[in-house]
Design a protein that fits this description.
There is one protein chain. The protein is an alpha/beta fold and 343 residues long. The protein folds into 3 domains: 4-117 and 195-214, 3-Layer(aba) Sandwich (Peroxisomal Thiolase, Chain A, domain 1), CATH 3.40.47; 122-192, no CATH class; 222-340, 3-Layer(aba) Sandwich (Peroxisomal Thiolase, Chain A, domain 1). 33% of the residues lie in helices and 22% in strands. A 10-stranded mixed β-sheet has the order 3-2-4-8-1-9-14-13-10-11, sandwiched between helices. A two-stranded antiparallel sheet has the order 5-6. It has a two-stranded parallel ribbon with strand order 7-12. A hairpin with a 2-residue loop joins strand 5 (183-185) and strand 6. The longest helix is centred in the first third of the chain and has 15 residues, at 25-39. The relative contact order is 0.19.
């Protein structure tokens, strides 16, 4: 199999609201320019482009076509798109490089959640016949999942608050004070929920000698897999994540020793589910970047987890890392990437 690595990563600032249109161009252009400058390349050096976004979020059909304005019209490009988090666009680009047709790819994702009513918009990804007509929003579904775990004795509101405390700053955090705050979707409190932001991110992949030419310490992808669980909530045990278990087993080969792991868990209880599903122990640092519980940009949050993990290898801070991305309600779809440095 062709050696493929992450050689560049950039993301837009995590802010609640941005000016400009919903096509992401204003957020994407600085990301592209940063990558070009750091790697000493131009648009012409990119063999394949792939993006992840949501037409529902942008409020228009084929919104990703408008985003291509961030790339430019000349010279013509080889481009594709997925209607989900851009981590899955990265998977498509990885497959493209495996074919040998190209040796570089730029993957990007974007989402401007401030443009509409996000909690209502996300309902559109549910079963259109039986669930969407009830209009359960994303927090309500996550609340059902959290309560199912509490009822099963798998975690408590205190253990959820302890997860949140890790992202509350450097000083000591009063867990009891967190538990005294009001519910926003019982049993979820504000600290249990990732703050959703506008955002965009981009990653450059390269294969073989091209990767070594562009980056001193490429983050080589040694495992990459994704799986999906049924969208039928009644057919799932919401307290576990079989798709994460299967993806992690395939991507890691059973070796779960990592310097760090970036987990795309938008809710505190979901981080607990993911740790167990992947088999992470206390020796692995979780979300040193701050993770989604400090900022969760729609449709680029999963790609950022891969980029942040890869960045630690490229800077020499880590040698073997795991990155996770999720899409869909209650951890329905999950992707695992394993990356290693070769010095």
């Amino acid at each position: 199999m062709t050696d493929i690595a992450v050689v560049g990563f950039a993301h837009a600032p995590h802010v609640r609201e941005t000016t400009g249109t919903t096509n992401g161009v204003e957020m994407l252009v600085p990301c592209f320019q940063k990558l070009y400058a750091e790697l000493g390349i131009t648009k012409s050096d990119i063999g394949f482009w792939c993006s992840g976004s949501s037409d529902y979020l942008a409020g228009r059909a084929f919104s990703f076509i408008s985003a291509i304005d961030a790339i430019g019209a000349v010279p013509p490009i080889n481009e594709s798109h997925v209607e989900m988090d851009a981590a899955w666009a990265l998977y498509e680009a990885w497959v493209k490089l495996i074919t040998g047709e190209v040796d570089t790819a730029l993957v990007y994702g974007f989402g401007k959640s401030s443009a509409g009513k996000l909690r209502r918009t996300m309902t559109m990804q549910l079963d259109p016949y039986l669930v969407t007509p009830l209009w359960p929003d994303s927090l309500s579904i996550a609340g059902l999942q959290a309560q199912a775990g509490i009822d099963a004795g798998k975690w408590s509101q205190r253990t959820m608050a302890e997860v949140a405390a890790a992202y509350q700053g450097d000083g000591p955090v009063d867990i009891d004070a967190l538990l005294d705050t009001p519910f926003i979707a019982d049993p979820l409190r504000r600290h249990d929920v990732a703050p959703v932001t506008d955002g965009a991110a981009a990653i450059i992949l390269a294969s073989g000698d091209k990767a070594r030419e562009l980056c001193e310490n490429p983050a080589w992808i040694t495992g990459f897999e994704h799986r999906i669980d049924t969208p039928n909530f009644g057919a799932r045990d919401l307290t576990i994540s079989p798709s994460t278990i299967a993806a992690a087993k395939a991507a890691t080969g059973g070796d779960t020793s990592f310097d760090l792991a970036e987990l795309h868990a938008p809710f505190t209880h979901q981080e607990l589910i993911l740790r167990e599903a992947i088999g992470l122990d206390g020796s692995t640092r979780i979300n040193p970047s701050g993770g989604p519980l400090t900022a969760n940009p729609m449709f680029s949050g999963g790609l950022e987890r891969i980029g942040e993990a890869a960045h630690r290898i490229m800077t020499g801070e880590a040698n073997r890392v795991l990155a996770h991305a999720t899409s869909g309600p209650a951890l329905q779809q999950n992707l695992i990437a394993v990356m290693e440095g070769r010095r």
